[in-house]
Amino acid sequence: MLGLLGLLRRRHRELLRDNLKLTGLYRPLCLIRAGMELGKGLAELPLVWLAPLPRVFSLIREVRGWEHIEVELRKDKGRGIALLAPHLGCWEIGGIFISNRLPVTALYTPPRQAWVHEMMRYGRERAGAKTVPPTAGGVRALLGKLKAGEATFILPDQSANRGEGLWIRFLGHPAYLPSLPYRLIASTQAVPLIVFAERLTWGRGFRLHIEPLPVAPTDSAETLAHIANQAISKLIRQHPEQYLWSYRLFRHHADVTPPEDLP
């Protein structure tokens, strides 16, 4: 198993180790399993993006929490649904599965490589999702979809650009995370749901979790952000090996420092 971890680039191994230590989740076995899960995640992407959709959908062995979506779909004037999908498990298959069943608009930052961009966009849109860039126009599109009672799909645990984030204690450590998802929820009173496609052992597929958040319509964007990231942190602690620890989540600009009284 140590040999499998050695297949990762040095910077990936160091990021896995450093992030696990920073959050208090480091264990030698967890580091090894996180490296193995990272490899599984990369290997499954071509299948999720390119295989026939019936084959992809068959990989979802169980869905827990779909009733939280159904409640809004059954209403004549249901609220919009803000799907928050952290980098945990296989977020790609979660988005594809849901977008085949209801209108979904996803925020999408194109990768630098043109061929990866084309494959990723095709994979994400072929089940019915629409993708928009993180621009003013893209934000307006997301806002309009939520006001119309449709769903949006956003990866909330990313390092935010200067002036576009909130300081959150994420997994016990300060992180500068995007405020956009929570500003959208607060301004439209959309229903926030956490989406997590748990990777089952021995290649058996995935278990899709859809979990509500204990929020109130009057909650501010900052309050929503803290509640959501507490829930996401809890999920990660339950499945630490399936989180994308190779991402530079805790980096921030040198002239931007967390407040001393961060809760």
Helix percentage: 40-55%
Helix and strand composition category: alpha/beta
Major sheet size, sense and barrel closure: 7 strands, mixed
Gyration radius over CA: 18 Å
Number of strands: 9
Give the tally of structural domains: 1
On the 0 to 100 scale, the average pLDDT is 89
The proportion of residues in beta strands is 15-25%
Number of helices: 10
**End-to-end gap:** 38 Å
N-to-C order of helices and strands = HHHHEHEHEHEHEEEHEEH
Strand order of the largest sheet: 1-9-8-2-5-3-4
Shape: globular
Give the uncertain stretches in residue-range form.
1-7
What does this molecule look like?
The chain has one domain. Helices cover 43% and strands 18% of the residues. Strands 1-9-8-2-5-3-4 form a seven-stranded mixed β-sheet, with helices on both faces. A two-stranded antiparallel sheet has the order 6-7. It has helices at residues 2-6, 10-22, 28-50, 53-57, 67-73, 91-99, 114-125, 136-147, 180-188, 221-238, and strands at 60-64, 81-84, 104-107, 130-132, 151-154, 165-170, 173-178, 191-199, 206-212. With 263 residues, the protein is an alpha/beta fold. The termini are far apart. The longest helix is centred in the first third of the chain and has 23 residues, at 28-50. The protein is globular and about 50 Å long. Strand 8 (191-199) and strand 9 form a beta hairpin. It is built from ten helices and nine strands. The model is unreliable at 1-7 (pLDDT under 50).
